[in-house]
Structure formats: structure tokens, C-alpha cells
User: Which sequence fits this backbone?
């Protein structure tokens, strides 16, 4: 399916909806009365896939409706792309204007279609492992210039491999989960000894994560040509960070308490097939890469990204806009590098992109960059300023791709900050 194809639905879909007929993402939801079930989204509705399966709509695709009666998507994703793509294509057909099969089956509409605001969206996958990359040249350059010699902002290895660290899967939560301000050690430049307490430099990081859709064996390496076969889809990812804790602890092994307290993800996984029409060329990699990182074709995605900040009792305002196309290292290279040493991956693992920053100050993917480590605070419309996040603030991240009239979006990932315990 191409973004230039014209698709219309018998379901009323607002023009700016992220959940058009071109999308058909996957997630997990729960009503007040029911158990957790797999779902998709179309316009303003969450669609119960378990009910559709029970009424035979996927009888020639999946062998049992039980795969949709789950608290996570892992079993569904584990069916493999041949089947999951057929489910998605079947749903596009059922929702299309020229198909009356589901449209006329009005007796089940109330149990199939739920207003999004009337259900609870859950963490979409059981995350076994989580890796966070550091793949935006703009972000790495800005941060390196702040903490090292600006003339040598990038470390010598940065243009030779996609830098990453292994994160904490247990603290990945779904959008809407409150963030309790973390505590830890930090030490100012002029302090003789470190202090302990709640972070004073709480930050967000605008990222996209990709979800592994196919497992590998220990010892197996994937090529950049194979990588997309192993990626089920993408979700928004906010890798909350405590900058003062991070600056004290990160030498010599990198982030620990500054990152592992919580990461937030959007509830919807947008498939690689839905995003395929929005693929673009990435930045020129001006240092030759080793053969295992070389790739052919378009490796990046044109996905618009926005960050909103909402003070307590205030209105949300957009404070930054970026785009996934800026990433220096693309997802195919990330996955090839991750597995080149034989590291195995499993269905449901998440690989996050690292902070996605653009070329300008107002396209920074974190406050660390935008405020120059707190030295140049931003001013909000209510007159208040932010060097870093305050208790009561809510951070909202959004993402969508659009070409012609075809829009494919992620919804949002949000989190409100609560005081330290």
C-alpha cells in the first residue's frame, strides 16, 4: 500500500486523526468490566480484536481467538509477519467504505468499537530487554560541546558505530503513568563531596523505539538487509533522565540511576508496513562504515515529532519540534550492530533511538540541550520559566507521518511529575 493510494472508510475518521485507514496499529486495552485484550485503532475508536476473532473474521488467518485474549501483544507478534500482516490487511478491508461485511453486522458493534476515552490502554508488550542508542549527531554534538571541548564534541568512536547501553526493562511503563521524582547522588563542580536527594535536573528525552518481532538464536548475527524482517513496529519513547545524577555517575560505565527509574512508551505500536511509504534517505554518513553497517536504499523515516509541556493548572504548549529523519544511525544499522557479536534478541524487546534532535534550538529533543544545561531557561506562555522539569509538569510527546492526505500517527506518550517520596 502506498501513501498515494486513496483509502476511505465507512467509519467516521477526523481529518487530523493519527488512526487513519493507512495506519491500523496494535495495542492492548481494558474496559472496566472486561479483561485485557488485543486491539487496533481506527479514528476515535479502539477495536476489540478478540471479539472480531470470536465471530470468525480471522478464521483463515489465525487458528485460535485466544491469541487476542492476552495482556500483551507478544503472542500475536510471535505469529510472524506473514500472519500479522494478513490481520492488518483484513482489518483495512473490513473498515473500507466498499465493504459491508462488518458495517452491516450491527449487532456486535457495541462490543467491537469502544471510544478511546472510555478504555484504559496498557503496556503493549512484555519487555524482556531494552537497549537505548545514542544515534542523533545533533544531540551528541550539543551534549559533547557542553561537557567537553566544543571542537571535539563527538568521541572518536561515534561515527564508526551506533553507541548504545543496556537499559532497565522493568521500569518501562505505558503513557499516563505518573513519574515520581527520583533520588540519587550528585556533585556540583565546586562541591567537595557528593550530596544525596531528589534530582534538581529532571529532563525528558524524545525518542522512538522499535519492537522486535522475531527472535534470533544466540550466536546469530543479522545484516542490515535482514533487519526490517525482525522489526514489528515503532512506538513513542520518553527516556526520562536525571541530569545531575547522570553527570556524576556516568564515568566510567555510563548511565545507571539517572535513567533506570522510568521510561514511558505510547500504547500503540505502528507497524513497519504502515510506515513504509514514509521512508527517506538519512544524513550523509561522512565517515566510511565497516561492511556490516553498510546498507542499500532508504534507511530513515519522515516522522514529525512534537514535545508539549503542561504546567500544573496550566495549558499545554509545544516547546520543540523535531523529526526522525535526522537520525545519523538508522534502525537497520542499530539492529545489525546490536547482533553482530551474536547477541540474541527476543519478541517484545525494545530498542530506543536515543534523543532525536534537529539542527535548530527549537528542535532539541531534551531540555539539557534546549536550555544549555539549565543556563538559558525557556519561558512558557504563562510567564514561568523552565531550566528543567518541575513537580506538577506534564510532558506530552506526539508523532505522525503524513504524505498527501495519508496520515499515520502514534497518538501520544505523556507523564506527570510527582514529588519525590
Assistant:
Amino acid at each position: 500500500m502506498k501513501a498515494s493510494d486513496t483509502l476511505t472508510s465507512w467509519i467516521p475518521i477526523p481529518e487530523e486523526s493519527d488512526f487513519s485507514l493507512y495506519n491500523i496499529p496494535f495495542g492492548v486495552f481494558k474496559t472496566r468490566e472486561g479483561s485485557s485484550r488485543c486491539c487496533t485503532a481506527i479514528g476515535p475508536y479502539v477495536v476489540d480484536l478478540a471479539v472480531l476473532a470470536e465471530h470468525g473474521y480471522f478464521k483463515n488467518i489465525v487458528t485460535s481467538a485466544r491469541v487476542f485474549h492476552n495482556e500483551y501483544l507478544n503472542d500475536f507478534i510471535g505469529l510472524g509477519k506473514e500472519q500479522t500482516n494478513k490481520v492488518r490487511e483484513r482489518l483495512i478491508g473490513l473498515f473500507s467504505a466498499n465493504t459491508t461485511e462488518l458495517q452491516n453486522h450491527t449487532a456486535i458493534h457495541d462490543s467491537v468499537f469502544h471510544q478511546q476515552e472510555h478504555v484504559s490502554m496498557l503496556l503493549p508488550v512484555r519487555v524482556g530487554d531494552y537497549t537505548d542508542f545514542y544515534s542523533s549527531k545533533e544531540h551528541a554534538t550539543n551534549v559533547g560541546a557542553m561537557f567537553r571541548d566544543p571542537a571535539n564534541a563527538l568521541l572518536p568512536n561515534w561515527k564508526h558505530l551506533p553507541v548504545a547501553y543496556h537499559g532497565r526493562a522493568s521500569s518501562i511503563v505505558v503513557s499516563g503513568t505518573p513519574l515520581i521524582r527520583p533520588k540519587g547522588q550528585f556533585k556540583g563542580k565546586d562541591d567537595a563531596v557528593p550530596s544525596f536527594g531528589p534530582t534538581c535536573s529532571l529532563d525528558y528525552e524524545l525518542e522512538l523505539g522499535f519492537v522486535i518481532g522475531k527472535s534470533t538464536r544466540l550466536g546469530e548475527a543479522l545484516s542490515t538487509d535482514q533487519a526490517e524482517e525482525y522489526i514489528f513496529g515503532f512506538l513513542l519513547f520518553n527516556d526520562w533522565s536525571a541530569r545531575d545524577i547522570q553527570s556524576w555517575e556516568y564515568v566510567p560505565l555510563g548511565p545507571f540511576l539517572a535513567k533506570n527509574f522510568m521510561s514511558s512508551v505510547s500504547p500503540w505500536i505502528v507497524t513497519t508496513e504502515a510506515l513504509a511509504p514514509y521512508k527517506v534517505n538519512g544524513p550523509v554518513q561522512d565517515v566510511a562504515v565497516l561492511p556490516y553497517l553498510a546498507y542499500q536504499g532508504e534507511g530513515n523515516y519522515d516522522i514529525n515529532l512534537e514535545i508539549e509541556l503542561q504546567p500544573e493548572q496550566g495549558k499545554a504548549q509545544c516547546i520543540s519540534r523535531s523529526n526522525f529523519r535526522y537520525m545519523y544511525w538508522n534502525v537497520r544499522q542499530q539492529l545489525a550492530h546490536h547482533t553482530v557479536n551474536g547477541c540474541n534478541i527476543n519478541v517484545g524487546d525494545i530498542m530506543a533511538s536515543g534523543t532525536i534532535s534537529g539542527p535548530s534550538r527549537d528542535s532539541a529533543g531534551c531540555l539539557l540541550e534546549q536550555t544549555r544545561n539549565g543556563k538559558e531557561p525557556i519561558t512558557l506562555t504563562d510567564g514561568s520559566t523552565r531550566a528543567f522539569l518541575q513537580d506538577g509538569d506534564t510532558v506530552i510527546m506526539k508523532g505522525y507521518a503524513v504524505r498527501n492526505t495519508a496520515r499515520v500517527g502514534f497518538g501520544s506518550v505523556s507523564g506527570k511529575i510527582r514529588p519525590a517520596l
Notes: Residues 128 and 349 are 6 Å apart (CA to CA).
